[in-house]
Amino acid sequence: MKTAINADIVELPPPSHPEIFESLCLDLWKDVWKDLGAQKNGRRGQKQDGVDIFGKSDGKWEGVQCKQKDGLLWKTISIAELEKEVQAALQFHPPLNKFILATTGVRDNEVQKRARLLTEEHKAKNLFTVEVWSWREIWPELCRRPQLFQSIRSQYWQFLDTHTHPLHQLPPTTLLIGRDDELKHLNDLFCAQPAVPYAPKWYGLHGMAGVGKTAFAIAFAYHAKEQYIAQFYFDMRGADLQNRKPLEAIDVMRSVIRAFHPLVSMPDCVNELTALYRSVLHDAGQTMLVLDNISDDGQIAPLLPPPNCLLIATSRRKFSNPAFVEVKIDCLCPEKSEELLVKLAPRLLGYEKEVAALCGYLPLALTVFAGVANAHSIIHPKQIVGSFREKRLKLVAVEAVFQVSYDLLSVALRHRWCSLAVFPADFELLAVSAVWGKLVRQPNLEGQIELRAAALAETQVDLQILVNYNLVAWNNDLRRFHLHDLIHQFCGNKLTDFERVEGQYCYSAHFCDVLNRANALFKMGGAYTELALKIFDSEVKNIGSGHGWAIDGFNSVDFSRRDSQMRKAVAILCSAYPIYGANLFKFRLLPKVRLHINDIALRASEELGDLKAQVSHLSNLGQAYVYLSEPKKAINCFNSALKIARASGNFASECNALGNLASASIMVGDIEAALSFCILELALRKNSKDRKGEGLALGTMGAICQECQKFDDAIAYFAQQRQIAVEMKDLESECTASINMGTAFGKLGNKIKAVENLEHALLIAGQLRDLNSQGSILNNLGTIAAPLEPERAIKHFKDAMEKKESAGDLLGIASTKLNLGRVYLQLGDPVSARFHASAALRIYEELNDSQAEKVIDLLAKLEKVARAFQ
Fold this sequence. Notes:
Helix 25 runs antiparallel to helix 26 (611-627). The protein is 61% helix and 8% strand. It is built from 38 helices and 14 strands. Helix 3 (109-124) links the parallel strand 4 (98-103) and strand 5. By secondary structure, it is an alpha/beta fold. The strands form 4 sheets. The chain has a 5-stranded mixed sheet with strand order 1-2-3-4-5, with helices on both faces. A 5-stranded parallel sheet has the order 7-8-9-6-10, covered by helices on one side. Strands 11-12 form a two-stranded antiparallel ribbon. The N and C termini lie far apart (72 Å).
């Protein structure tokens, strides 16, 4: 028997597409009603009388209306919407006994109140009852039905069963004809013994656009892939037809490092990042890098890997670095071009010579034309070739082929194909459904713009047509689509300014929603944290581009003058991205970048008059300043957040701001201020019976006492915090309280109690897969063991270092290195002691942390020891 899921611990995000959400509701209410005959009411676009799903419960008819909302970007269900849907449901036949409005959005007390009042009004008239189910009601209902959940799990949350590996990123191979000689030559060079030991294996492929450099490079990569434990592919955008900035070397470095160490935090210093990149590649073993479409070999100079790696690069220019083995990729010879055409489209037999010549013997043009010929089987090849011949008089080969393809599409499909130019990277089906959706302007809802995604069935059919025409590439392994750069340029040039803005808004809004769902998974902790980061990393180009478009639109004066309604919608996006990505951005964006985007988001939320969002952005700004060891600036942000929270009556944000102020005040040594903030927070939490928040405040109070050397008082507060955590089944707070108790007992010299609490915390941190806490605990255990068991202490510190590096905790890394330096000095090993202490000093100085002075003192002692040894 399957056990129920604890909805208080795990909450998966709702489906992102209206049709999928509607299907999920149908599956759920079939089970709720015990009615296998429950069904959807018609199809999209038909009149549905306020009911999407209907069925019988205990012999009486019930109906469900499904609404896609999220509480910020898509707003929430309004009272006006509820009343409108209830009025429509009155027309449904047979008459309903109960009407349910189901939404993916957040629970709204005023809407719930109106639903109850409507029910009372209807009872007097012998009409149906009214209920509103937010995702907070729908999700627990699913969790109470484990058998149903397991049967639909992979259908609605496919990412839970996706096992794409970040170490294997090669695109799928494509048909490669006429390149046998070049490929054999390159394989022979690859297999030959190097003339010089440890010589680099770097191969540079160059040639004009459209000759098939990428296909050739991937074919060669697949030939060699079995010898390499990891394979990476990057489009460097050196000759980018979309006018995007070339991919920077530091972005490639970060991606490679993250593939091996997903949770590591990247150094800001380029030299340190480069050293880490080369170290990771060296330690990883044999690794393959395919750097496609580089401007020249200077663009990838920092990325040149060690001898244990294989590098394959493509460019339109020749390579100047003599270490590269160069292979020139030319157009296909006429005979091979004709062979390729007939193999791809047998119906072109007899026309292959003329078509190959018109295509300029370019593989891309040949492939697309073959797709056009195959897709239009009722049109005689002579007619298609004639059209191509006319276009070729005015256009270059590739563009002429694209124009023929474009002319043969329906008007609607032409627009859909060209609108895919908003994607700067590969994309999946739901993203296309959003971009092909419809923007509905709602003048009665504060000028809101609503995105209604295109029907999935229609989206799949049209995409299949474009794939069959070879106008869109399809990766079956990754289930993603891609546009060739030349096709992307052609499509982009066909879009009007209006079409481009609307398409980019749909694109940006969709990936803001993707970010929101990944963030929801991240907050669930454990294995979901790593899954959220994988989802973020797989869509990072699209998320970054969508966010960047919103920022550019918000900053554009001309943009706001043209369309005030779109201006407001873009401001909402600018504000939403940092809120939805708050947790993920801490791991993936540098603090200075977080400052920049939250500063813009703050301006956007001020323009919108969104006080709740302003508090979020000010809190994010403050936390970024804390990370940068600038607590005074952080305190200014937290004070502003507190002021707005109080003015707007946002109780939860007020308490959070007080807690943040208390922690930041400890950093600047203002214990009196920290104490006052904490006392006020604690009183508010108690009065509101917020037990979980009360526990957090007690923990802060304990930290204050610990800072004042009042360890007995600190232990008492931490014990209360742990008691509440156990009561609330809050493992994270229980772990934190146990760590703090262990530390305080250690300060008092009670090592038995210290170890007992720390080992309990380590057990919980392991259950939570909380790497940062595991590192802190191991560091404390090492400190306790150091005086009498230095060898054991070193093991604890090294284990702690591994956890802290994976978690990206720079201060934690520095603290652990400093502790290692001290224990090595204790063992009489000044060389190792200096190595670790110097590494700690570099981090502390970079962060402007006061601990740097202690490290300098330790290094001074090491100088004396070294002179004594000499």
